[in-house]
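Appendix B, Record 12. Input sequence as logged:
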Amino acid sequence: MGRMNNPEDLILATAVGSIDIVRHLIESEKADLNQENSRGHTPLSVACAYGHLDVVKLLIKKRAEVNKPLHGTRTTSLHIAAANGFADIVTILRENGADVRARDLGGLSALDFSGISPQPIASECPQSGERIENGDEILVRMRRQCLTALS
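Logged structural output:
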């Protein structure tokens, strides 16, 4: 098997939650933890999007930048975890220095992201914590847990 040293390899391993491959790429292949893929995502932002808590913990332990914003949007991993309702990841990020006050290009914080309607995330989304309509009840519950974790 050839060496895997493409930034996409670490992103893909992170997306599928393969902690053994992520660990191998970081420790043996010396993959750059903070390098962005072609879409501007980092391994940490991807792990936060998919809810892979163990991968998030490993990336943070190996010194992934918790406040690195996505290229072009200023969205952070904390925004992403909150928007997807992963309160456990929100808590881990906060414990490791994630900036709760960081705002994306639309001026939204992670707290705003945890309270917005569960539609595709866009800058125009309302900032009201109560405006969750036609949404999946599980996601609504998860986002409310994130509101608590962010408070």
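The radius of gyration is 15 Å.
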